Amino acid sequence: MTTALLSTAGELHARVRRGRRAVVMTMGALHEGHATLIRTAREIAGPDGEVVVTVFVNPLQFGAGEDLDRYPRTLDADLKIAAQAGADAVFAPSVDEVYPGGDPQVRITAGPMGERLEGGSRPGHFDGMLTVVAKLLHLTRPDVALYGQKDAQQLALIRRMVRDLNFGVEIVGVPTVREEDGLALSSRNRYLSPDERRTALALSRALFAGRDRHAAQEALRARAREVPSTHARAEALSALGESRAAADAHAVATASPGGPAAVRAAARQVLDEAARFAPPLELDYLALVDPSDFTEIGDDFTGEAVLAVAARVGTTRLIDNLPLTFGAAS
Length: 330
Fold this sequence. Notes:
This protein is α/β, with parallel strands linked by helices. The protein has helices at residues 9-13, 32-45, 75-85, 95-98, 118-121, 125-140, 152-164, 194-226, 231-239, 243-254, 260-274, and strands spanning 4-6, 21-26, 50-55, 89-91, 144-148, 170-174, 281-290, 295-296, 303-313, 316-326.
């Protein structure tokens, strides 16, 4: 299959459409995470559909002092990766093609959710992101668009925009792809020196520590529920030769400091240790949030949540997250 390289919306609109069109939006510098998105899009579109990959470094979502100028631009390599993953076309427009009148005066506003976490650290970032996503959705006219769950707040805001503004497109989130050592794949990973990369692994280790603490708590709670708090329970535990351990487990499982607070504490311990590395990890935020609005969850929260972290190692800023489920929903 030959993958077409297109630079104008006119070229894209002239293509004969058969079946569903699935779009994967990127800023280029493609890696295996993007390839996973493209392969998933290929499965969704099917053999009769079409997969379009956009490659556009959007100046609106870079703030002052951020890495717009040095952001990697590797179109030839991107085209090869996209083709190998099953893309029918790569749409790589110029800035003038996307913003023909210069910076747009009318833009999408992300609202309160866009001011939290990433939005608090990068003011205006999500307004610029949503504006270009809206434009690219109009320019590519997909039936379905796919985004990585690594950018969890971005994905949540795109879903909210599509719902609130009645875009006729299905939004699909694809799980984060990680390297063997756990580091989430990112185009910015190439900026890291070997020592910086070792420090950067603290992001994923912190998330895994929080996840493991949560899993242990849920297992203890399940175990406590299995045996009634009666004399029969005590006899059963004694018969297993673990009455003290089980009693401790029951206490831990039902103690109020557990749940979200314990998850945050387990993750923060890893990050605090990494702050003493050479080079150090400079934490931006660690948050455990409700994915519907990205506000912090309370200790009585039940349902889906996102454990998210952002930090700087050297001059490189990285983000990562993991989904968790609390309470009855788990």
